[in-house]
Predict the 3D structure of the following.
Amino acid sequence: MVIPIRDINQTRRTPIVTWAIIGANMLIFMGSLSLDKEAAEAIVMRFGVIPDVIVHGNWAAPRVDGGALGSWVTPYTSMFLHGGLLHLASNMLFLHVFGDNVEDVLGRARYVLFYVLCGLGAALGHVLVDPNSMVPMIGASGAISGVLAGYLTLFPHARVVTLIPIFIFVHFMEVPAAIFIVLWFVLQLVLGYMSLDMISEGGVAWFAHIGGFLAGLLCIRLLYRRPKGRRRALFR
């Protein structure tokens, strides 16, 4: 496992949206710590993405009565729920490293739209792979996968300082963003394929990562506007 520490890629403006998303995720997680186990599970079941409810649920009945009405909000709310501190920390680290530059290029309003669309693409990917699953999907990793796709498209030659653990030793190395992100995506594909037989049992939603990444590749091309007189990696 390799861990991104920071990128060597300056921004022109303060990444307010990225910081706000990180802050919102942290506040919601800290708030969940005050809940007992039963209440925390109820929150996840209500606001996580449950494929079977979305695909086969009764949209004439509300969620409190076992129906699907109200489930339309779960692809949005699930992006702000996490199953543990490590889950939260890893997602926020990736967003911190890669999100600021994508926000810098897109601008704040389009970056918000981009992030949400990537999250919706992640939910769609997860639902399509196992529409009968009753296991709720939560986490920001699908949307952040789209951010990685945007970063790859815009800054393939940027350098990423990466921590590489080797047994009990750690090694820091600068690698091109294209190599880091492409290898990361290939790993998602491999792990997603290996998990197909166990997908209904829960675990990491690999196909949400894949769906979010593919959504990011599409949406960055739809939302990016090249500044006049400037060339970006997207057009090279």
